[in-house]
Amino acid sequence: MPEFTRAQTRAIEEDGRTLLISAAAGSGKTTTLIERIIRSVCRKDHPIPLDRLLIVTFTRAAAAELRLRISRALTDALAKSGNDPFLARQVTLLPSAKIGTIDSFYLDLVRRNYAALGLSPAFRIADAGEAALIAREQMEALIDDCYDDRAGDIAGGAVGFAALANLLCGTKDDNLADILLSLAEKLDAYPRGAAALFDREDEMRVYAAGDFFACPLGARIEREVRDVFLYMKERYAYVLALIRADEKLSLAYDPAFSEDYAGILRMLNALDTGYAAAFDAIRSIGFSRLGSYRQKDNPHPSLAFIKSVREDYKDTVKGFLSGWFATDAATLADCLFRTADAAHAIGGLLCEYERRARLEKQRRGVCDFADITRYALSLLTDADDNDTPLADTMKEAYDAIYIDEYQDVNAVQDRIFRAIAKPDNRFMVGDIKQSIYGFRGAEAAIFAGLRSSFAPIDDAAPGESATIFMSENFRCSREVVDFTNLLFARLMPAISPETGYTEGDALIYGKRGDRFPVPVQFFLCEKPPKDAPDAGRPVEAERIADEIEQLVRYGEKQDGSRIRYGDVALLFRSLKGTAADCSAVLRARGIPVETDAGANLLDAPEIQILVCLLETIDNPRRDISLAGALLSPLCGVSCDRLALLRRRADGKRLYETIRDYLAEDDTEGADADDDRARLAAFFADLAQFRAMARCLRAPELIEEICDRLAYVARVCGADRLRRANVERLIEAARGAASGGRGSLSDFLRYLRRVEADAKTPLAAAKPDGSAQDAIHIMTIHQSKGLEYPVVFLADAGKTYNTRDADASPIYSAAGGFGLRLRDESGFCLYDNLVRKSVSLAVRDRNREEELRLLYVALTRARERLYITATLPDPEKAIALAEIESRFTSPYVLRDKQDFLSLALITSRGEHAFVETHTVRPGKRHGDAAVQEKTPAASAPAPDAAALRALSARLSFRYPHEARTKIPAKIAVSLLYPDILDDTLSALPIDEDHLPPMKETPRFLADRQSDAARRGTATHLFMQFFDFAYAAKNGAAAELRRLCDARFLTPEDAALVNLPEVETFLRSPLFAKMRAAKRIFREQRFNLRLCAADFATDRDLRAALADEHILVQGVIDCFFYDEKGNIILVDYKTDRLHGGRAEAEQELRQKHARQLGYYAKAVEALCGKPPACVLLYSLALGGTVAL
């Protein structure tokens, strides 16, 4: 029997009460949990049968490990007992025992009670993509109904909903569904769902009647302001001590700094009185000028820091005046009422969305796991939040309930477990310091609340719920333990005071047996300046690679074995940026790397080939899909053959071209015979598959294709990951088919919608990590539950992501509800203290979670821990951390937005277990550094005659090199005065004159910004629209006509900015154009210009004096007015900034040169120059003369 610590023994043996086990990282919680279960089953007095236990955790892997270890322990116990009948029965009960994931427990509960919920007995779990599509369809349908006044009084009818939509997203409501879906997803993690907004509404109406600082929204702001001013007070006290220690500095600076200090004290006193007093107090703060202090030869060493403290204080006061204290009490009450009104409207809207989405899923016979959780809650609690009879029955079904990773539950899950548990039979295991899944709805505050309400086990009365701290860490080295404790003893109370960090949370070194100390190391890498030759060099990645090379060559683990690549993990907050650099640098040095970047299934090559084949079966006239299938291993036709076939297409589709080719007599060579045979076999298979597609559902068709073509063997080979991806696509097809998308065409449309619309793409299979000895690159979230001998916490200087705190509307269980409001004019959205308070709560929650993420990262290391970062000035960062480490204010830490700053500040001082190194760009370390310093052996003298001959040949220059710089032709839009000074390879590509494509490829269209696509579409309309028809029937009717006539695609038509076009149709310029005697639109031209005019180099201009350059272009429009003068017009869709004057100047500067070339072209075409050159800006709605 293993030796257990005192805390583990109490956790195993304590009975007759509900227990919360606060188990630190590496404390053996799984072993303790299993030992308690086995002892409860095997004890002689009142053993508990396995079918009376409920054991749940969050992941399938963890559940499988629990079941396996329980099985082994039971088998061992049975063997030692001499085949005890009770234990023998427990072994037989094990396969059906309630040991699994939390989701599987809920799913089983719902399946057994499907009738009570109105569900089909055959309902299935929808994949994430399908669920997201259903959600979007229902939300968009609801939005349409509200606009058309078909949704009743929801959100105040059509008028009220239009006002609400304007409040949420302005006049452009393209993202309205996204905003509402995001809010609905957050609310789904709470027992009342969207109805929680009604609770917030009631709260805000009550808050409006009292002092703002007395309500939770204001109290949060008051605490933040107080912490900032306490921090300023501490900094000023420190700075005043420095000032008063120097007589000359004191004479110059003491009066102003003392006055500032008195203002800080007044503000702190005012905060005790209320919001109105603080509002007045901060406006009374003023700043006197500093006295004269001139010490050029011997300035005070801290002078820069002293001045920076005062500047920071000024900026803080200025920010508070425009932020926390920009609103008086009366206006603030109005904000609360208006936010309450919005909460009521949005709450009603989202409740209706929840109802519609639930009914639609029931109609399709699908659920997602969020639905399952909510259905389970509805089975166990009633509308008044009381336990149902079913919950009472389940209470009697279990003698003990074991829940692992309780720090990751949300409010709904917590309520479910409370509903089925007795007061004395829950055993909850977790560690609040490892609660890192807030983005999935986990509420660390639930675990914190239990910890604060449960007495420590030594102080608890008999039968009273209690907490047991398991703090011994059997994983990490002493240095990692000491470093983690050093950081978190200060970080947790400062950043996460609600956690209730105590001595019991500190890790206790329990590993023993380490043979040598290995300090925690900081690598602070200097980022090269932007103008440096090595700007952009991955200094941090190179330093990590150097260290890994040294570790693998010379390093050994505490057990005496050598360090392998597989012993090393690189942890990142995100696998972008530095993670990609590290992967590239390591691979370039021949170091194997394994990473899981959350790949999209549809990006996998084996899936792309299969999708190309499926699209070809569905419609063989898709040229790109057909070409992809032909070039794949499924056909293997040569690229040259395909290119030749494409050349002979003569306007036909590739499918018809190949079909005609196969019908011709074979008069070509042997190579052509091979390609012809491959094409014939492929087309024969294609005909069969097209016939099958008429009668088979998509999943059966894909399986038939894979079977007949031996697809997995030919395309995937022995690669298990690729094979798993094919299985995932078939599973996706099954899911789509059961949801009503059974045909191949339906499934392909489903894939396109998932790719374009779903927030959660189809996930590719993940590597199992066991196949090779390779460096592991992963996110900190992915590392949870894992451990490695060597861990690099890389890119530690990367700032946190705070986008969710900037959202509007915004919701937080702890913070409440808020959103930006419109001013009295209705044209401007403004922020307000209600939304800012909720945003502050979200930021606080994010800081706490980032802190817990840091804890998880540090405690993955068994023996060696490195923290690396890239900084502009590492020495400055260290010096600042040394100063800030002296301050005790929590705000000094709460203000930091990255791991490195927190770790540097809290680890300053003399600590043998911490080392800090700075790294310069280009400096190699380890063996590489030695090799760089070793002088090369002297080479033999070269043959002089051979060297001269070689030099003459290599230095030859073509005598007419200048003429090689002249392109055959160039677009006018790409011309600039010194273009020929560039090398030929640097000349820009004339994309406007590339061979035309019928449609923009999807992979290019997706990369264009919305503004660019709208501008392009609007310009297309201006090219083709009929003046007379548009003037008579309007821009919208003309747009429909152009779309019907296929001048514009439906996608382009949807992007045309009709209001801007309507403005043009009403403009004086359009009237002149309609009245013109002659008008030329889309006039193409070729213009020969002197090549010397496009070079500034004197020698080059002389060499090109008799050369010309052919310029091509297209003029939007020019016309003859009633006087016979030529008016040149060019349409511009540029998005502009600033006032009208600045915008017009911007247009002139940007396009004057191009319009000058157009004017020359008009003169060449018409024999006289234009009398007037005009730009028509659709954004400005008027002309700009050049």
How would you sum up this structure, described in words?
It is built from 47 helices and 28 strands. It is α/β, with parallel strands linked by helices and 1186 residues long. It folds into six domains: 6-123 and 368-470, P-loop containing nucleotide triphosphate hydrolases (Rossmann fold), CATH 3.40.50; 127-210 and 331-364, Enzyme I, Chain A, domain 2, CATH 1.10.274; 212-288 and 300-330, no CATH class; 520-598 and 775-802 and 834-919, Rossmann fold, CATH 3.40.50.300; 601-664 and 672-756, PCRA, domain 4 (Orthogonal Bundle); 975-990 and 1011-1185, Lambda Exonuclease, Chain A, CATH 3.90.320.10. Helix 21 (539-554) packs across helix 22 and helix 28 packs antiparallel against helix 30 (720-738).
Compact overview of the structure:
This protein is an alpha/beta fold and 1186 residues long. 51% of the residues lie in helices and 11% in strands.
Features:
single chain; 1186 residues; alpha/beta; Rossmann fold; Enzyme I, Chain A, domain 2; 6 domains; seven-stranded parallel beta sheet; 28 strands
Q: Give the overall shape, derived from the CA principal axes.
A: globular
CATH architecture of the largest domain: 3-Layer(aba) Sandwich
Q: Which CATH first-tier class of the largest domain would you pick?
A: Alpha Beta
Mean pLDDT: 86
Could you give me the name of the CATH homologous superfamily of the largest domain? P-loop containing nucleotide triphosphate hydrolases
Q: Which structural class is indicated by helix and strand composition?
A: alpha/beta
**What is the total domain count?**
6
Question: What is the tally of helical segments?
Answer: 47
Query: What fraction of residues sit in β-strands?
Result: 5-15%
Strand tally is 28
Oligomer: single chain
Q: What is the fold-level CATH name, i.e. the topology of the largest domain? A: Rossmann fold
- Sheet bearing the most strands, described? 7 strands, parallel
Q: What strand order characterises the main sheet?
A: 3-2-6-7-1-9-8
Q: Give the termini distance in whole angstroms.
A: 92 Å
